[in-house]
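It would be a great kindness if you could assist me with a short task in structural biology. I am sending you one protein, given as its amino acid sequence and as whole-number tokens for its backbone shapes. I would ask you to consider whether the tokens describe a fold that such a sequence might reasonably adopt. The full record is reproduced below for your convenience.
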Amino acid sequence: MNLKNFLSDFTDLIFPRCCEACDSSLVGNEATICTSCMISLPRIHLHGLHQDVIRYKFVNVPEVALTHSFLLFTKKGKVQRLLHALKYKGNQDVGLLLGFMFGQEMMTAGMLSEAEMIISVPLHANKKKSRGYNQSDLLAEGFANATGIPWSAMILERTKHTATQTGKSKTERRENVKGVFAVKDHIDYKNVIIIDDVLTTGATLEECVQTLKLVGCESFTILTIALAEH
């Protein structure tokens, strides 16, 4: 055993690293998520029942050419634990890793050939300041690292602070986010990816689409790390 491995093993013994999905100890080269959880995370297939549910959320937005969620979110499940670590425990590595894994799967499926730019869903400046970062930026960065498609956090901005969407109906959610986004700079992209953490009703993402349509974007791929199961 070389010195670097010895020091790593010694550090793990004194300050054990734990998987954010199951809380078991990480070993060797494992980072953030253990190998077992990497394999067993509840993935959503591109062709299946859950995919039909996702598509239906944007049935009235013909400009959405493709929409997909990477994982299935269930209460007290591994995906909830991961997203909680990302949003509330300050573990930014979770976002980078999940975005990268999602990007790898989408590239393998050959679904992103037309995309010109990845746009993350913005937080209001006050909320971003409070949290210290926007989790969607991290997902977009990880996704970009895997796909080679550029990403930007500077295209869309959230101009109004809104109440939480939790507990609201789709109609209430639409009203809550109506007019809250604006485009910060002129853009020339026609085919864009919008990425966010969790898909529930799709109201926030639909409002992003409507805002970007006003500046000439024509075709949208909507991607989220998780689909909330109701």
